[in-house]
Amino acid sequence: MPLTVHHLNNSRSQRLLWMLEELELPYEIRFYERDKATMLAPPELKQVHPLGKSPVLEDGGIKLVETGAICEYLVDKTGRLGPTDRDEGLCQYRQFLHYAEGSVMPTLLLMLAMGKVPLLGRVALKKVQPMVDVHLDYIEQVLAARPWFAGDALTAADIMMSFPVEAAVARAGLGPSRPATMAWLKKIHARPAYQAALKKGGHYDYA
Known about the structure:
This is Glutathione S-transferase. This protein has 207 residues and is α+β, with helices and mostly antiparallel strands. The protein folds into 2 domains: 3-81 and 193-201, 3-Layer(aba) Sandwich (Glutaredoxin), CATH 3.40.30.10; 88-191, Up-down Bundle (Glutathione S-transferase Yfyf (Class Pi), Chain A, domain 2). It is built from 7 helices and 4 strands. Strand 1 (3-8), helix 1 (14-23) and strand 2 (27-32) form a beta-alpha-beta unit. Helix 1 (14-23) runs parallel beside helix 2 (67-78). The radius of gyration is 17 Å and the shape is globular.
């Protein structure tokens, strides 16, 4: 029985499609479109899960939310895309698996929200940008030292980090001044599994 992904267009759930393509697991997609006025998820997603958020993964009787938890579930299920080094690599893997949503995305979302507020928002952005830059400088330092977030091979940590890095290019000024990060981004975008996920998932602003 194939997995089912409840997929919201132009959202974090694009990462899950990429992961499933990397794992070569059979899956089907149920598509949901954002409200064009509010850009919020449609109420139909609340019929899938009380939070009304995406992605949601169904595997038989199991229903999971939170992309990081879903990634860990799929790594445990397949034995793939986990850390290859059980010592330092494992620590880095766990850190970046959770750092993506626990630290980076809240700061980027704050920047996005402030950018929509006239006048006061522009003032606030000047205070938020240095907070974002701390994260972007850290990410650059990590990727200048090794090819992937958890070591020498692609893991679920890279898949989790893809969305905040892509969002930072679009919203937070990430660019050529951080060459290691941009090289990593180019590398993941060139992967056949990433491209296959784009074709299946529909329009995605950050690719």
